[in-house]
Amino acid sequence: MENLFSIGELSKYQNISKQTLIYYDKIGLFRPAYVDPRTGYRYYSASQIDYLDTILIMKKIGFSLDEIKEHMQHYNIDSSLAALKKQVSVIDRQIQELRLIRNRVQHRCGLMEEAKEHRRTEDAVTIENQNVQYLLFRKVEAPYTLKEVSIATKQCFAESSQKQLPIYFQSGVRVPLQNIREGRFTEASMVFLPIEKTGKAKNIMRLSAGTCACIYHVGDYPSIGRSYRKLLDYCDTHGWRIVSDAYEFCINDYITSRDENEYITKIVFYVE
Q1: pLDDT digit string, tens, across residues 16-26
Q2: Which of 40, 64, 94, 113 suits 189 as a labelling partner, its CA being 20 to 30 A distant?
C-alpha cells in the first residue's frame, strides 16, 4: 500500500518480531496507522517509525512497557529529561547490585577451585586460622532428617530473596558435636547461608575468628561419616580439643553438579 509499510516490512526494518508488534497493538502501546478491514493486515506510516524507535530505545534503557505507554501519551523535553534522570538512578542501583552479585559469584568460584585442589588429598586434615564469618540461619525441625534440613534451607533462601539479603551463593549446616560422637552425622540442628555483615535480618549469627580443624568430604552426603571419623581421630591423636559443633560448608552441591559423587563439603571444628 502506497506510503505505508506492512507489518512484515516494519519488522524487518526495525529488527523486531511481528509477534511483538501485534502485542504492542493489543496493549495500546503502538497501533498501526491502518488496518485493512477485509484482510486484517496491519500497515504503518513512515512517521510511526520514529515513534517506534523511541519505544525501543526506552525499552533498551530499562523502562517497562507500562512506563513507556504512560510517558508517551504526552511527552516533551521536560518530562523526558525527568524520566531519563530517574532511570539513571535505577541503572546506578542495578550496577551496584550486579557488582555485589559478581563478587559473590567470584567468591563461590574461588571456593570451588580451592576444593578441587583438596580432592587430591581428600583424607587430609588441615589446621586453619578461620576469619570472622556471618551466617543467616534457621533451626531445623524435629526429627532432623535430610527432609527437614532441605526445607529449612529452602526457607533461608526464600527469606534472603524476599529481604534482598547479601548472601553468598552457598549453604551449610551445623551438626551438634554430641550427635557426631554418637554417629548421627546427618542430624543437623541448624542450616545457614554465609552472608555479608548486614542489619537487615535478626537471625544472623557471627562466627568468631579462631583455629579450626578442617577436612573436605568428597561424595554424597550420607557417606559423610567417614570424613568425620578421620577428623575426630586426627584431633584425638594430635591433642586438639574440639570446642564447637561442626560447621559444614557446601562447596560443590546440587547447584553446581548433578553427580552426587562430585559433591564436596568442607567440615570445620573450632579447636584449642
Answers
A1: 999 999 999 99
A2: 113
Q: What's the CATH architecture for 4-75? A: Orthogonal Bundle (1.10)
Q: What is the pTM of this model?
A: 0.74
Cell of 84: 531519563
Segments making up each domain of the chain, as ranges: 4-75, 99-270
Query: For residue range 188-203, what is the model confidence (pLDDT) as tens digits?
Result: 999 999 999 999 999 9
Q: Does domain 99-270 fall into CATH 3.20.20.70?
A: no
